[in-house]
Amino acid sequence: MATTSDIRKGMCLEHNNDTFIITEFQHVKPGKGNAFVRTKLKSLTSGRVLDNTFPAGHKIKEVRVERRKFQFLYSDEMGYHFMNNETYDQVALQNDLIDTPDLMKEGMEVDILYHAEKEIPLTMEMPQYLIVEITYTEPGVRGDTATNVTKPAKIETGAEVKVPLFINQGDKIKVDTATGSYMERVKQ
Asked: Which of these, 8, 87, 105, 142, is most buried using a 10 Å CB contact count?
């Protein structure tokens, strides 16, 4: 059993008969009253996010998880198929375990978090950034770099991303996989 002093970002715990990962936390020691820890928890089974406050010294049940490297193969009606890079075993994950499935590229490396005792996949994590090519967008016009106006662009995975006006078809861009938003243009 762990206590609130052991809380850290990325820690997995069992709370209300569900498995959660801590995405944010803050230790608070008010001038009057007892200390507490304010947390933002993301459910690994349903994906919902909730705010929870633990009193200082509260016992929490830590869940041991294993992070395993997998390669994305393909998707079909059964789900998204991945191959373990070490054992070559394949696993299919449902859409609800993946945050941004429209950004998945065939052959990309991802991490799948497994519950260590139950041997079940909890969630899939993509790399923080993804470099993709623009397959279609309206052409940019000279002088369009002065404003923060954006336009829609279709990328090679099939997803649509808002990009600045100066981005053209065939350009490579860096996309933040957590939000699915444009970061910068990549030099070719």
From this structure: 105
Best CA proximity match to 71, nearest among 110, 124, 129, 100: 110
Domain 65-125, CATH 2.40.50.140 — does that match?
Answer: yes
- At 146 the pLDDT is 62
Find tokens 């600045």 and name the residue. Answer: 164
Per-residue model confidence (pLDDT) at position 142: 64
Contact 151, 165 (CB under 8 A): yes
Tell me if 79 sits within 8 A of 93, measured CB to CB: yes
- Joined tokens for residue 32: 């009057």
- Of 3.30.479.20, 2.30.30.40, 2.40.50.140, 3.40.710.10, the CATH number of 129-186 is 2.40.50.140
pTM assigned to the model: 0.74
Dump pLDDT digits (tens) for 51-77.
999 998 899 999 988 889 999 999 898
Tokens at residue 113, please? 């978090």
Residues 6+ apart with CB under 8 A from 82: 70, 71, 72, 73, 90, 91, 92, 93, 110, 112, 124
